[in-house]
Design brief:
Shape of chain B: globular
Strand content of chain B: 15-25%
Structural class of chain B: alpha/beta
Number of strands of chain B: 15
Oligomer: heterodimer
Strand order of the largest sheet of chain A: 10-9-15-6-7-14-11-12
Radius of gyration of chain A: 28 Å
Number of strands of chain A: 33
Distance between the termini of chain B: 31 Å
Number of helices of chain B: 16
Helix content of chain B: 25-40%
Largest interface: A-B, 29 and 49 residues
Largest sheet of chain A: 8 strands, antiparallel
Largest sheet of chain B: 9 strands, mixed
Chain lengths: 604, 437
Amino acid sequence: MTESGNIRNFCIVAHIDHGKSTLADRLIEQTGVLTSREMQAQVLDNMDIERERGITIKSQAVRMIYHAKDGQEYILNMIDTPGHVDFGYEVSRSLAACDGAILVVDATQGVEAQTLANVYLALDHDLEVIPVINKIDLPSAEPQKVKDEIEDVIGIEAQNAPLISAKVGTGIDGVLEAVIERLPAPKGDGNAPLKALIFDSIYDSYKGVIVFCRLFDGSLRRGMPVRFMATGASAEVVEVGYFGPGRFIPCEELKAGEVGYFTASIKNIADTRVGDTVTGADRPCAEALPGYKKVMPMVYCGIYPADNARYGELRDALEKLQLNDASLFYEPETSQALGFGFRCGFLGLLHLEVIEERLQREYDLDLVTTAPSVVYRVYKTDGEMIELTNPSNLPDPSSIEYMEEPIVSGEIMVTTDYIGAIMQLCQERRGRYLSTDYIEQTRAVLKYELPLNEIIYDFFDALKSRSRGYASFDYEIKGYERSNLVKLDILINKEQVDALSFIVHADGAYERGKKMCERLKEEIPRHLFEIPIQATVGGRVIARETVKAMRKDVLAKCYGGDITRKKKLLEKQKEGKKKMRQIGSVEIPQNAFLNVLKLGDDTN
Amino acid sequence: MQPLAVYVHIPFCAKKCAYCDFLSFPPDAFAEGKETVQRRYFDALLREIDLAAGEMPLRERAVQSIYFGGGTPTYADSRDIKAVLQRLRQRFFVLPDAEISLECNPGATTAEELGALRDAGVNRLSIGAQSFLDEELRLLGRIHSAEDARECFAAARDAGFSNISLDLMAALPGQTQDALLFNVKSAMSLAPEHLSLYSLIIEPGTPFFERYAGEVQDPHFDRPVYRTSDNATAGKDGLPEVGDDDGRHLPGEEEERAMLHAAWSVLEENGYFRYEISNFTRTAAAGMDAGACGKRQAQDYRCRQNLVYWERGEYLGLGLGSASLIAETRFSNTRKLYAYLEAFVTDDPLRAIREDTEHLGEASRMEEFMFLGLRLREGVEESRFADAFSVRIDEVYGETLDRLAASGLLLRRDGRVFLTNTGTDLANTAMAEFLLS
């Protein structure tokens, strides 16, 4: 077996579109899958190809074999990291399984906001970082300028950075050599008790949970009894292996410093928490790895099945998603308007959208989602403090002393042309201006403090549209601040619709209430009676619209004796009615909830 | 056995109107010239009559009404209409007092032709006047003036037609209530026996759709769907240019209902009884200067052909795109002109032209009974429902009737169920409630 000195565990970090995936593909292309020893012996005969074929490995990690210029054979484990700031947590759990990182920087774009965010995360994890300059084949490439920028802005040595074009395939060897030479081999004691970090897992219906882990000490073999230190669950290892490109390759043993997977007939996905430490049941290690910082969800919303009969399916789907996304939080919730569903917590709005998308696409569920809300702190007159995740649970205003809302420190990188527009946007969103730093002549970083609830709706879209796509935004939670917040309720035909309530700054209540009413007026079809739509704050009506009673719904013409055509029309009408939610005596189309909540900045 | 109604479709017209989505072709739609196509069409029609009359459920059947619709049936040669009627008389038992209607457009006929049609046995004429304001007629893309319509009406009377219907359209772009009432009064001054008043419907695939689709308030209106015509021949060239509309807009729902209600009142005050959602018949009260026609006070001028549709009587559709209900089976003829024409060289032409055949189960028949019957002002007779289905109406629709009655859309009185005026305005809402699945 390869010694741990010939192993490199690394990840690639980059700003979106700087070429991370292309480089990853090239690295896989230029390396092999099996070591020469493995080629000769074991794997092929004990690989149950039929069974393997059913599963496609999520491109979380891949093992590559590289024959270096020094004549030796190296095992390279490349672990994928999500690029977006919402997934800082996911990035950090991937980073914890690595010893080094390749930083890809676009030779035409230079250092971008997310480049910085990810590099700092990598440095926080004590990873060695090798910069790589990509896209040197482009005419506008300025590698020297970018090298200087990396040194100036990030403060890491970059003059020796490999110059590559992942697209064309030039310079890839240089990257591989740099990985061997400059990234450290994993440390760890192969004879010590097993100590492995779970960095991901997936569920397979044949094998149960497949745990992705990085071994820090000891070894992991088939038949070995293991224990999960945080959950206390134990199991016996059925299969161990590593990640081939696109598939799992079983092997006899994983050793300290290696990255791979194991299965142990684990059916209960809650037993294998990402970030937990796996150790030997017979010979446990003294203490668990620090794991990951527990990340608190920052954005909450209610998720309901459009068809209430599918509540159970939604619950199962959320449970499965939580398995490899520990940052997803959910608990059952009931809404008068929407029936049974879940209050779900997310790292950010993108995370919310990703989960929503996965529920719809992978689990074929039709969903109704309520307004996203941040976590407010409600200080009551009796001294109690409540963390409010659902606006409906806001206590009676008379019992509230004051409320606090989360504030983020935001950095917006923008070309100088759009500074004015972006500053205006931040102003509208109750932003507090801190500073402007010029990175170079045409680009600056604006620093603002912004209330989180102002950026969870449509801030990214507004940012992109006002900067023609040239601004990028990064934020981190700064803390809580006292704020003048009120709960805005929506009444449809005098009935309060719990799913539409939300917390808003008192100054913005009227604008939001008015917009909500206007949008609802468009979404609610005319009924036989007039329907008032009201926005109220503390029982006081601040905005009102009316859906006028339907006056006409008749087809005068009868097209000779073509009754079929007439009947189809009536059927369509009846079908449409079935897709409505009943609120009191008013029927509201399901997508009205979504459309109202996606209250965009229409004026732009 | 109940006598049959027969519908004959004539898919030709001088020019497509800007709002029209009926199955009809202007002469420039054909490469080979309209005479050739019309010749082939009427030959096919005669063959269809021969073959249909030989079918089991139709053999030796009595016919109580025949209706020539279009297109513009008067755009065809009266000799062709006459030939069709003759063939129908040969193959079926056309009752001596059968209602024989024909749609006619001013500007597409002559006094001689009207006389010939009367002689051929046509005894009811439905004249598509649509409006008595020339600017509205231009906007609609009609080929005639208001004066043409009056002349056509007079010529029809001269030719001996004592049962004439006038078609009017309401809710035209930019139309005011006064304009509509002017049209209604102009129509009444001619003292027709029957009157149809339809609100304009914006149909996909028409020039009006291109222009006004965005203004339609109907929530069930299919905005994005443009129906591409099945007929390669009905290309863009077949469509007339829409005249300048001077910034006219469709009336809103409230306006539309207000002008229609006003028109209804004027009509009823003058002895025109609304017996169906959009159809009126002259009653005894319509005296005025109706002159000679006043003598036939007791006569029922309701359109018998249409009553068959609404009361679920049997009818046979002949020609392109026509619909039939025979032995509780609905089917339609193909809407593709050349498919229709070429079917008659095959072994089984009827099978080749008929599509969308649907045998109606009991639930469908009940649904139809209700939503068709409710189009009539007098509604449906509860005892007729019980006779037809051997079950009391309450057992099937009790809850629906209560609900609709509670919302003020419907009334039950003297053994009948019928729509209120509000219910008539919201007829689709009410009718959809009678669907059972």
